[in-house]
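Audit log entry. Action: structure prediction of a protein-small molecule complex. Ligand: fe (ii) ion. The ligand was supplied as SMILES and no pocket hint was given, so placement is left entirely to the predictor. Protonation state taken as written. Sequence taken verbatim from the request; no trimming, no tag removal. Recorded inputs:
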Amino acid sequence: MTEVDTSLEELNRWMLAHHMQGFWTQEIGASRPGEKPETISLQAHTLPPGERTAVRYEATSYAHFVVQASPDATCVSDGQAFPLEAGDLIVNPAWTEHSVVSGGSAPTIWVGAEDIGLLKHLGLQTVDGQTRPAGLSPAVKPDGYFEATQGQMSDASLAGPARRPPGRYAGSETMAQLAALRDGRLGMDQADGILLRFTSPLDGAPTLPTFSCEMQLITSGLRTAAHRHNSTAIYYVFRGEGWTEIAGEGREWSQGDVFEVPPWTWHRHENAGGPDAILFSVDDWPTMVKMGFYRIERSEHTP
Ligand SMILES: [Fe+2]
């Protein structure tokens, strides 16, 4: 592995050992020497107990995958406070005001995914970086506001066309769905194992317009077939360990690692027989589909 072979737990220990105060972030995600993914990226974030990030209000779409959180940690998104627990996904579509508030008893650690590379390609980087001081975005909406008004039912008083709401996908429910598919012997894809894609309550499409957030179970002993697609995928290993072959080169991974699959690169996954492995990933295939570029090819060879 490359520079991305960094355990978030190690980052957190390092930060505490150096008595760092405030928000700390580490860019990760490049598996090609000296290169980074062009469209989407991941960063590791550690927020000490009792701290709050500045409020982000940007054209980038942003997803938080929670690695660790104290019991009272929240993400305040457009006025609703979403609780944070390990394994949760919080999505904040473009122009959502959002800020993470770490609880008082432990640091909060998350992997943040965003589409800033894509915006820069489009010449929109000038709208990036608008942050507001913490405290200007209080949690004024009741729990469940977005679920009630823009979920399975919609609030008719909301003016204008609906846009994707911010939202929380509870890790406990994600794990239960993966386990149900495994136990029911359902949902097994030749190239991806059991793969769940998070969807927006607005239209059932990917959670964010530009990239998809996904959760994948590589069951014990599974060897997948190879495929390639001209979208970029970045993986974060949430649980377990395994091996992925990318462009003919094998890469071992274990909990806390991040690795990238560049566009149009053959790849396949393997779990040699340890506990089931769980991978969180982001993939810019929704952008490629919308622009008419998307293509996927499966290997004839099945292991
Ligand atoms: Fe793939």
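Audit: result stored. The domain at 169-298 is CATH 2.60.120.10 (Jelly Rolls). The chain is about 15% helix and 35% strand.
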